[in-house]
Design goal:
A hairpin with a 2-residue loop joins β2 and β3. By secondary structure, the protein is α+β, with helices and mostly antiparallel strands. The chain has a 6-stranded antiparallel β-sheet with strand order 1-10-7-6-2-3. A 4-stranded antiparallel β-sheet has the order 4-5-9-8, with helices on both faces. The chain is elongated and about 65 Å long. It has one domain: Pnp Oxidase, Chain A, CATH 2.30.110.10.
């Protein structure tokens, strides 16, 4: 991503927050067949202290298509984003932009054995189901779940480096920021309330 000092974040806690709140990730690998990408939900391994470690699974044969375990891959996590019109700027400014929260993460995936894979699949289901009125769990049919899990491969990715951007109009005056936030919250054409919340978080009043 473009290196603009206003927007670069080296804060690992910010990256963890982004992953927790936006767990749908893009896995990108360079293989003999070219560049390959797939999309899967990810969880943070919260047991590893300061490291950023992702847990996920892929459906077979994506582990072969992506060459998982053979070399480094990149994982892209995308948070809220949206168009910012120059009409929200002072008179005379005509160049629009696109605000966003994004992280690129790199590491070499580790493929999990069958038992670990089933545990990760169970954790993924539990993570998203716990807010439901009657949460479903793989534990309700463990043998059936184990059979279905054979069609997937569990993955652990210890992140060795990351490149994160919080492009949220940090280079604009407070008055302009307020106008952008207002338009993103309730404007007629380009409302993005989640992006407005991100901007309020980094522009406290």
């Amino acid at each position: 991503m473009r290196h603009t000092p206003h927007f670069v974040s080296s804060d690992a806690d910010e990256v963890r927050r982004l992953i927790r709140e936006n767990p749908w990730a893009t896995l990108v690998a360079t293989t003999d067949a070219g560049i390959v990408a797939s999309h899967y939900p990810v969880l943070l391994d919260e047991t590893v202290g300061d490291a950023i470690v992702l847990l996920t699974h892929v459906g077979r044969p994506d582990e072969r298509s992506l060459g998982l375990g053979e070399g480094e891959i990149m994982v892209i996590v995308q948070g809220p984003h949206g168009y910012v019109s120059p009409g929200w700027y002072p008179e005379g400014q005509i160049v629009p932009t696109w605000n966003h929260v994004t992280a690129h993460l790199w590491g070499v995936p580790e493929l999990l054995d069958d038992d670990e894979n089933l545990r990760v699949l169970g954790d993924l289901v539990d993570h998203f189901e716990h807010v439901m009125p009657e949460p479903r769990s793989l534990q309700l049919d463990l043998e059936g779940s184990r059979r279905l899990a054979r069609g997937t491969v569990g993955v652990r990715l210890r992140v060795t480096r990351f490149d994160a951007r919080l492009k949220l109009s940090q280079n604009k005056s407070p008055e302009v920021v307020d106008r952008i936030v207002s338009e993103l919250e309730s404007g007629e054409h380009y409302a993005q309330p989640a992006l407005a919340r991100e901007m309020r978080r980094v522009h406290p009043r």
